[in-house]
C-alpha cells in the first residue's frame, strides 16, 4: 500500500541522549524500536538520522515505541506493528492489580477504516491488546473503559 507511506504515517517523540563513542552501551529497546520504525521506510535519506540515533546514549530511556506501518503483515511481522505489538509488549509485563487505574493514549490515523461498529474491532482487537492478549475479562479495566475517539 505504497500511497499510505505518504498519507498515513506520522510519528513524533521527543527524547534526548548524549552522543557516545561506545555503541555497545547505547543499545536499548527504545533505540531498537526507533531504528526498526525508521528502517521500514527504506529511504536513503534516513540513513544519516539512523546513524545519529545509534550514536546517542538512550540507555536511561525505558520507553517503548509502538508504531504501525502500511501494508499487509503476516507471520512474525504480524506482532511487530500496531496494537498486536502493544499486546506482545504488555504480555511481558506483570498483570496490573484488578481495578488499578491505567492510562493508555492511542492515536489511530486510519480509524475510519475500522468501521462504525466499535464492538466489531474495539472489544475483540484493541482491548485484547491493551490486556496483553491475556484475558477477555474487562474487569481489569473496572468495566468497559471510557474511550474517546
From TrEMBL:
Intracellular or extracellular location(s): Nucleus
- Source domain of life is Eukaryota
Q: Which UniProt keywords apply?
A: DNA damage, DNA repair, Exonuclease, Hydrolase, Nuclease, Nucleus
In Pfam terms, one family for this protein is Tyr-DNA_phospho
Record GO biological process:
DNA repair
Name a single GO cellular component: nucleus
**A molecular-function term among this protein's GO annotations:** single-stranded DNA binding
Similarity annotation: Belongs to the tyrosyl-DNA phosphodiesterase family.
UniProt-listed PANTHER family: TYROSYL-DNA PHOSPHODIESTERASE 1 (PTHR12415:SF0)
Q: Report the protein name in the record.
A: Uncharacterized protein
- What organism is listed for this UniProt entry? Cylicostephanus goldi (Nematode worm)
Read off the lineage from the record: Eukaryota, Metazoa, Ecdysozoa, Nematoda, Chromadorea
Amino acid at each position: 500500500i505504497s500511497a499510505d507511506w505518504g498519507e498515513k504515517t506520522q510519528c513524533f517523540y521527543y527524547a534526548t541522549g548524549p552522543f557516545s563513542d561506545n555503541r555497545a552501551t547505547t543499545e536499548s529497546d527504545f533505540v531498537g524500536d526507533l531504528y526498526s520504525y525508521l528502517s521500514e521506510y527504506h529511504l536513503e535519506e534516513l540513513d544519516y538520522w539512523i546513524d545519529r540515533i545509534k550514536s546517542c546514549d538512550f540507555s536511561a530511556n525505558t520507553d517503548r515505541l509502538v508504531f504501525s506501518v502500511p501494508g499487509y503483515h503476516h507471520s512474525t511481522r504480524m506482532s511487530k506493528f500496531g496494537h498486536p505489538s502493544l499486546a506482545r509488549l504488555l504480555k511481558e509485563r506483570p498483570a496490573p492489580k484488578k481495578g488499578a487505574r491505567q492510562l493508555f493514549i492511542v492515536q489511530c490515523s486510519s480509524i475510519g477504516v475500522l468501521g462504525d461498529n466499535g464492538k466489531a474491532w474495539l472489544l475483540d482487537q484493541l482491548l485484547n491488546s491493551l490486556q496483553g492478549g491475556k484475558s477477555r475479562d474487562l474487569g481489569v479495566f473496572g468495566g468497559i473503559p471510557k474511550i474517546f475517539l
